[in-house]
Amino acid sequence: MNEICIVASGKKKIWDRNTPTGPVKSRELYKGLFTQKCIKYAEKFHKDSYYVLSAKYGFLLPEETIESPYNECFHIKKTNPITLDELSSQIRNKQLNKYDKIVILGGKYYMEMIKILFPKKDIINPLKGCKGIGDMMKKLNELISLNNE
Fold this sequence. Notes:
single chain, alpha/beta, five-stranded mixed β-sheet, 5 helices
């Protein structure tokens, strides 16, 4: 079974610390601890098949570059985040429907969005049942360290 991992992006970005830095690869752009931990998980278990889900750009490959700062947020509609219709179009154009299993690393909001975008796919959330960001970080640390032993 082929699968893809989708990592929820975060608010903290490299430009919050360093300005200007120029174009940045999506895998290096997000500086929040949770997003960084999710990317670490994705690179360990889904190295060749993961995307970061950006509220401005949609599905980004790890090596895709972003040119400049942005502040769109899925949770804040007035920031004009990418729409579900635009994301659906990207799924078709990037052929993400070819994957049987979708692994989502993110909170409840992202899980619900992925269910809408991939209605007939097997959707897995390794963080299901976690009670908050601290619990999710702990679970990610456990999962990442399991295969290190």
